[in-house]
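Ticket #4471: structure export looks truncated?
Reporter: QA, pipeline team
Priority: medium

Steps to reproduce: submit the single chain below to the structure queue and open the exported record.
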Amino acid sequence: MKKLISLILSLAMAFSFAAGLSVSDVLPDIAMTAYAEESTPLEKQMLPYHYSKLSDTEKSVYIKLRKAAINHEKTFSVNKSMDKDVVSNLVDIIFYEDALAFNVKKVSYMISNKKTEFEISYSFNQESAEKMMKKMDAVAKKVTSKFKEDTSTYSKILYIHDYIIDNTVYDESLNSAHSAYGSMISGKAVCEGYARAFGYICSKAGIKTVNVVGKATDEKGHTESHMWNRVYYNKKWYDVDLTWDDPVMPYVENKSYQYFMPGSAMFAKSHKPGGTTLKYPEATKDTSMNYYAKKKLVADDNSSAYSLLVSQIAKAAKNGHSVATIKLTDKDAFNKFKKYLEKNDSEKIFDAIADADKKTTVSIVTDRVYGYTADSKSLTVSVYFMMKNTSIYDYYTDVSKLSSDEKEFFKDAGISMKKPSKAA
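Actual output as written to the record:
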C-alpha cells in the first residue's frame, strides 16, 4: 500500500524571531574583519553601508568612535556640541550595522555646550573578542575558498545563504545567539545572528549587504522585532531573510527559498523596516532573481508542473537529497496542480516518484512519502521522499521524538534505524 506519513495540505511553518531589538533592551553584537592591505588602519576597513551616508564631519567623528570601540576604550569625547539626532544615528550604526562593533555592549553619551562625551561598555574582554574574531575569520575563509574565479555573484550569495542555514539552528539559549559568532561558531542563533553571519561572509566575498531592522508578521498575525538583510546585486537591492528560510521543522532537509530575493512586493507584506534612525536602500520589485525563477523551477500548468516535479525528484536523489520543490506561476495554477496531485489518495505524487526512479540510478522508495507540502502563500509544492540503503537519521534531526508508528513506517520501507558511523 502506498502511504504518506505526513500529508500537509496547507503548510504553516513555525517561524521564530528574536524579540527586543531596541537599543534599551537587546543590543545586537556583530563581528567582522576585512581582508585588507596591512597599510589600511583597522578602523577604516569594512566600513558599514550607512557610513557613506554621513557628512564629512560625521564621518570623522564616526571613525574616531569606531577606533575607540575597536581598541576597547571605555570613554571617548569630541570637543564640540553635536546634534542629538546625529549622535543617535552614529550609535545606531555601531549597534545594528558596524562590522567591527562586535564587542560593544552599550554606548551612553552626554552632550554639553562644548563637548560630546561617549561611554562604551563591552560584552567580552579584548583578548576573548580577538579569539572569537579569529574563529569567525576561519569560517568565512572556509566558505569563500569554495568560490572560483568564474563563480557568479549570484551563486556566491546562494551558497552563503545555504551554508548558514545548513549550519545554524534557531536557538536563543546562548549569550552569542544575537551575534554572527552564535551562527558561525556555535551553530545556534536568532534572527540577528543569522543576518549578521550572512553580512559577515558576504563582506568577505566582496558582496555589499546591509542589516535591516524592523518588524515581521507571521502567517498567524503575530508581529515581532526582526532583523534580515538586503544584498546588492546587479545594481539593485534584494531582500533576503535567512531566519524565515530556515523553518522550524523536524526534517534534515528543511531549507526554504521563499525569502531569497523574492522582490519587494511579496516581501513587504510581512516585513516592515523601522525602529531605528537608519534609512535603508530601497529594495527592488524585481522577481527574476528569486531562487525558483532563477533556477527555472516555475510551471504554469499541470503537465509542465508534473514533468518538472519528476525531474527535480530525480535530480535531488542523484545529489543525495530527499526533497524536491517546484513553484507555480499563480494561485489558479497552484490550486489546480494541488488538486491534481491529491486526487485519488494522492496517486499522482506516487506516480511522480516512480517516474523519477526510472530517471536515476539511485533507488527511490516509491510506495512511501514521509512529507508533502503545498504552500498557498509561496505557491510551492514539496515532496519529501526516501531512498533505499539509507538511515532514518538521514531524514530527521531528532529521531528520539518520533513515535513508534513513525519509526515502524520507515522500518517497513527498509530504512535502517541505526545512526551512520562518521567517516574517519
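Status: closed, not a bug. The export was complete when the record was re-opened. Leaving a note from the reviewer for reference: Residues 42-130 form a domain with the Ribosomal Protein S8; Chain: A, domain 1 fold (CATH 3.30.1370).
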